[in-house]
Amino acid sequence: MEKEKTNVDATTPLLDTIDSPADLRKLPAERLPQVCAELRSFLINSLSSHPGHFASSMGAVELTVALHYVFNTPYDRIVWDVGHQAYCHKLLTGRRDAFSTNRTLGGLSGFPSPKESEYDTFTAGHASNSISAGLGMAVAASVHKDEPHRNVVAVIGDASISGGLAFEGLNNAANSNSDLLIILNDNDMSIDRNVGSLNSYLAHLTSSKGYNDLRYSLAGILRKYNLITDIGKGRITRFNNSLKSLINHEQNIFEGLNIRYFGPFDGNDVATVVKVLNDIKDFKGPRILHLRTTKGKGFLPAEKDPATWHAPGIFDPATGERPQESPEKPPKYQDIFGSTLVEIADSHPEVVGITAAMPSGTSMNKLAEKYPERTFDVGISEGHAVTFSGGLAKDGMKPFVAIYSSFLQRAYSHIIHDVAIEGLPVTFCIDRAGLVGEDGPTHHGVFDLAYLRSIPGMTIAAPRNGDELRRLMHTSLTLDGPIAIRYPRGRAKNKLSGTIEHVTIGKGVRIKDGNDLAILTIGTVADDTTDAIKQAEHDTGKSIAHYDMRFVKPLDSDILTEVARKRCPIITIEDGTVNGGMGSAVLEWLADYFNSSEREETAMPRLIRMGVPDRFISQGTPDQLHHLCGFDAEGIYKTIKSILK
Ligand SMILES: Cc1ncc(C[n+]2csc(CCOP(=O)(O)OP(=O)(O)O)c2C)c(N)n1
Ligand SMILES: CC(=O)[C@@H](O)[C@H](O)COP(=O)(O)O
Ligand SMILES: [Mg+2]
Question: What positions does the entry give for Mg(2+) binding (predicted)?
Fold first, then answer.
């Protein structure tokens, strides 16, 4: 069957003349549809060979053009939520020529980054922070009495606004009377299908359109005759309330919070968005503008399947065809997690799965396919996901909660307060642990070992391969307390062997013995370490011991005693921060060991901690980043050589 052609024109003559929003603002409004069309062509052509987030930016084209057209950026502030939809913002703010470097080492960040551009007002990457950050900026502008008046706009998606942090921001914004404009970019999608009652409510608002249009028109009349600023907030509220009772309509949730609501409008019609923004931009107080958009707009395959096209990888710009993944490749860690969970659930009816808006990213969708009633997508709410799991565990369920390492940072207090203090048997499956690659510093999962290690009663493990992940997941069922199993993004090195035996909690593995140097690893860095050791032993004639610690807590004291008695230098290696991670745990153990009275005459051996240094690591391929941080096979080899010299 012949593929549907999308007929993308690669030329962008008008866009080529826009090097900043000031250039855009010089254009007559009639030319904006062409700017939008060219932005879409640019995105399709560029992202087809330089992959990144696709569908969200495609849906936000008109919104982005209208924002930079109506507002005086960068003086006025646009705060993007998550920021994966901000590619057109980058293209309009002087970064068109550099866009082919998007998400690469030394290139543009895939998210707004204040280090990169004055137009990027705040760090973005994790969902739901834009309202709070925007409110902070709006309050700062009013405290500074900035002249001319500085507009602040937070742009947030329908899934991100359901996050707890966004609710907290709304709650505060409503109370503060700050001139914050919140734009709700509602495409009825998260990465996967959006969930939750707010989502249903937003869909319902669309059906209340007649009522909202009437309110908007009346507000326009008030504004035209300059009544808005004069009549005062109380009277506006009374006006709204009378209107509501006039039409006998239920109260709008945002209005109920004292945030003026406008919409829903067609967010993919640039003329409409420009008009509405012009109409409401000078209104006072917190406002929300609800725009309905289509995720993937303008590229049929993405419109039809926005979940696949959230971040599709490379594709044919004409047909949308994407390269097939070879079935010969070893499985992804996330898929090993997903299929093992199904296998465990088959024989354990008390097992349930929880994901915070990442069913396909974590492969929790495998459990959902087989056991939909035992799988819970709770939306972008990592804190809630953890506390919810605590509640489930308290009453006899066995929750496996799968969350990306960096997103789990959001739930730190919940882990301690709602799981660990009671020692509840929750299995934390921490995906995307270590340096994730192209998503960069907001998404690197490098802090988990450090932040979990200090929690009493927490068991922490990391598999060195896919088989070990399966073993650890099965073993977690035997534990009467919380356990965290962290594993990386991407594929295992080898296919699964198929055998599953339980492992002993707190026990590592001696991979090979040796006397001149001892290397302790955690997780998948074991492979590069093995390669480096082979080469170094061959080149130096020395013998090197290698242990896979497997558990960071409890540490294997038998292995550590064996290593301490060797009196040789020690290297620890982990795909995580060296400050507080596995290396630090070993250092503490050794300090205690050599400080004890019977060994006080003996000096502690030299110990080198390898891993992610104490700074934020940029984006790049995982291989590049491991190299940058010095713990790829080459870096490990060099360190070994320098020690053995
Ligand atoms: C705290 C947090 N959890 C999860 C994610 C992963 N994530 C990235 S985008 C996204 C969906 C966002 O949906 P929405 O806000 O509606 O924007 P859209 O992609 O639809 O434009 C999710 C869950 C994240 N970035 N941050
Ligand atoms: C924007 C965002 O946070 C996610 O889309 C993230 O980029 C997912 O990355 P994975 O490809 O690792 O699922
Ligand atoms: Mg959405």
Answer: 158, 187
